[in-house]
Amino acid sequence: MKTFYENFLTFLGIFSSGFFNKLNYLPEQEIEKYQKKLIKKQINYCIKNIEFYKNLEIKVKDNPLDTLKQFPIISKDDVIKNPEKFRPARISNFLSSSHSTSGITGKILKSDCSPFAWIIEQAAIWSHWRSANYKFRDRILILRGYNPQPDEPIFKKNRIKNWLYFSPRHLNEDDLHEKIKIIEDFSPLFIRGYPSTIKQLAFFCFKNNISFPSLKGILSASETFIEKDREFVKKAFNAPIYDHYGQAEISCMFHECDAHKGMHLIPYYGYVEFLPDKSGNLRIIATNLRNKFLPLIRYDTGDLVESFTKEKCECLKTTLRVPSIVGRADSMLYDLNNNKFSSTSMITFLSSFPFLKRFQIVQKKDLKTEFIYEYEKGLDNIELETYLKNIFGREIVFNPSNNFILSSEGKFSSIITSK
Q1: Who's near 322: CB < 8 A, 6+ residues apart?
Q2: CB environment 233-253: b (16+ within 10 A), e (fewer)
């Protein structure tokens, strides 16, 4: 029943995407006016309904941006330590769409998305895909979000959406030589995945002179696509790339347009501030404009940009634009058969484990692997260990501890490799 409900909300997002997409082309002053209206509404809601914000001494100003500046900048740690303080007193599990995130921090945060926020989420994503000339039921090869068990096939098909899922963990020479015919016969119009998994497939296809003549575009997300890899993938597949930036925390969203001159902020989804960082870059501080179940105001996304511009783009959008997101590059891991795969797929799956608080995977040159993790009572250790042993072998060391390995600067990463 809940799946039907979420599909219904997705349909509403698709249906309304054309309306919301028009907001990207309004004059700058009109966009600012529109965002101020949403900021004011979200602030008033939070002050009345969210414990964390109720306790702040916020003086409401005539200009919502002046009110906004009174709020402290919050981090993922702040939300993880006191998640209920950032949620309304009552949330319907049926009405909530839940997501988990960890990223390179390895700290798992469960994010709840309210119904209208999910509609806006889908409207933004489908508008982005439409800019790449995607039409409903166009064939998409999905290289993310599918982690089969040992007795399951490494691919599956969603016949309603007409998508082919291929396990990111099996993008190696042996499996691709055996299964590439399935992808060729599917003849994808689009490829969607992490830059690291897309690059793996591109390298195999380039090496083996394999092409997908019908391919219209690459839909990438969740990692940074560095320039040399972008150029290689475009050459290997003879198709343009449309990059996406978003977060499970439902904070802000940026999309690469069809002019490929950077990534545009989605103004009806989130508001951003750029604050200087010690590295000389700018921190992305985001305020979501729609979510009522985990409304984050002035949330430090942990990501950076080098610069931004408000100049009108060749695509005619008038929204704020950044060249790219700094960082978020992915590390690669090796399984028990010495096959390389994207760590992002692993991070995404582990983030879905209830009661797993934080984790770190350490893999050495000899492929000896250690899994360091913090957890709460209720974690299914058997399922967790079985899953990781099937990938890394029975020799993987499980270390339930908070003695994580830090860099010389004291920074934490969920993936540490030395190969």
Answers
A1: 254, 262, 263, 265, 305, 306, 307, 308, 309
A2: beebbebbbbbbbbbbbbbbb
DSSP codes joined into one string, 170-235: G-SHHHHHHHHHHHHHH--SEEEE-HHHHHHHHHHHHHTT---TT--EEEEESS---HHHHHHHHH
CB 358 within 8 Å of CB 298: no
Report the C-alpha gap between 343 and 191 in whole angstroms: 19
Nearest to 74 by CA among 276, 247, 282, 300: 300
Record the pTM: 0.81
What confidence tens digit (pLDDT) does each residue in 61-93 have?
999 999 999 999 999 889 988 989 999 987 655
Neighbours of 177 (CB within 10 A): 11
Q: Could you tell me the end-to-end alpha-carbon distance of the chain, in angstroms, rounded to an integer?
A: 46
Q: How confident is the model at residue 357 (pLDDT cuts 50, 70, 90)?
A: confident
Residues 6+ apart with CB under 8 A from 30: none
Q: Is the pLDDT of residue 404 over 70?
A: yes
